[in-house]
Write a structure and sequence with these properties.
The protein has about 190 residues and is of the alpha+beta class. It has 2 domains: about 140 residues, Quinone Oxidoreductase, Chain A, domain 1 (Alpha-Beta Complex); about 40 residues, no CATH class. The protein is about 20% helix and about 25% strand.
């Protein structure tokens, strides 16, 4: 399968280039046909050089939704055409936590659009463990932001911070994730 999309190159991160390339269908992975992909501030920071790319060339985009185009070998519980969002982080599968099947707390999580190609493309490859089903009543254009702009602040407030009822919370930042964090924090009151 081929895929085409814009990519950022070292050492001139401000230049976007279109490229066409082939990618494998690794075991326990699937390809997703991208329907929508947001533009996160971190995408812009990679393009303008504020964040350095982790690869010589990388395709941007990590707030993606779409449908499963093809299943990898051994993948169960999913079907082609299923509506999904793609996780922004990919567990390394080699650290102690991943080996204990605790991939949520991976020590070396690989961020989409930094460590591996993102979703500003027609297709992307994702691990089976890294997809979440999107209900039919949720539009894919709204679902795209769930993978990062909603899940990250939710995890920070609920899982990491364990904010309880009546506790005070300080939120720094002015982007979408900061606004969402304030919203989740208010629900804990």
């Amino acid at each position: 399968m081929t895929r085409c999309g814009p990519s950022v190159s070292k050492p001139t991160p401000k230049q976007l280039r279109w490229r066409i390339f082939r990618y494998p269908s690794p075991a326990q992975a699937r390809s997703s046909k991208i329907a929508f992909c947001g533009i996160c501030h971190s995408d812009l920071s990679l393009i303008n050089g504020t964040f350095p790319p982790q690869r010589p060339v990388v395709t941007q985009g990590h707030e993606a939704s779409g449908t499963i185009a093809r299943l990898g070998a051994g993948v169960t519980g999913w079907a082609e055409g299923d509506r999904v969002i793609v996780a922004a982080g990919r567990p390394c599968m080699t650290c102690p936590n991943c080996r204990r099947n605790n991939m949520t707390n991976c020590h070396r999580v690989q961020l989409m659009a930094f460590a591996h190609d993102g979703a500003w493309a027609e297709y992307t490859v994702a691990q089976a463990v890294g997809l979440t089903r999107v209900p039919d009543n949720v539009p894919l254009e709204q679902a795209a932001i769930l993978a990062d702009a909603v899940s990250m602040p939710f995890g920070a407030v609920v899982r990491t911070g364990r904010v309880g009822i009546g506790e005070s919370v300080g939120v720094w930042g002015v982007g979408g994730s900061a606004r969402t964090s304030r919203g989740w924090s208010a629900r804990c009151r």
